[in-house]
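Work through this protein:
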Amino acid sequence: MGISSSHTENGIVEVTIDFPPVNALPARGWFELAETITCAGEDEDARVVVLRAENRGFCAGVDLKEMQRTPGHDALIAANRGCAKAFGAVYDCAVPVIAAVQGFCLGGGVGLVGNADVVIASEDAYFGLPEVDRGALGAATHLARLVPQHLMRALYYTASNVTAAQLHHHGSVYRVVARDALDDAARELAQEIAKKDTAVIRRAKEAINGIDPQRVHTSYRFEQGFTFELNLTGAADRARQAFVDGNHARQANDS
C-alpha cells in the first residue's frame, strides 16, 4: 500500500498509486508520489513513466478526513504543498509520463492527469473537480489542459464530471479502452516511446514544456491562495466537515 515503482528491461517505469479503497492520498502520499516520479525521470535507464493505480478508481484527490482530524492548518498546508510537488513532478519529469486512468479521477487526480504527457483511460473513467463543494480551489489549471475554456468553467462551477469518451472527443485522452485492457494499452504506447532515442525524447520533453503557453506551476499556486483565504473565513472547514459527515452517514446506512 502507498506509492510503488517497478522497472522493466526496456526502460519503462511503472509508478502505482495504492491507497485503498478510493486512493484519497494523505499528505505524505503526495510527497512520496512526487519523489518517486522525480527519481524515475532522473534514472538514466528510464525512457518513459506509466502512472497507474490500483483499487476502484485512479484517484479521489486529497484525504479530507486527515485534514479534518488534524488540529490547525498543518495538514492543509502539507496537502497543498504535496499536491503542488506531485503535479509539478509529473510535468517536470525528464521523460514522458503516460497516465492510465480507470474509474474516477477527481480533484488531485485531475492535477496529475492534466500535467501528464499522454492520457489513456478505461471506458468507465470520468474526471471532475468537486473543489467548490469541498471549500477548496485548485486544479482548474489542469482541467483547462483537458477541456476548452468555457467547458472548464461550467464543470468547475457546477462540480460536474466529464467522461473519458468526451475527453477523447476533445483530444486530451489519447485512447479509450476496456478496463481490463488499460494496463496493456498504456504499456503498448510506452513501448513505442521507449524504442526512440532516449536523448532525443528527453530533449523533446524539455522543449515541449518550454513552449507551453501555460505556466502550470505559478497558476496552480495562485489558485491555492484562495483556498487559504476560504480557510481563514471558515467556509472551507464547514464544507469539508459536511463532506466527512455525509460519508459517515452513508457508511452507517450501508452497514
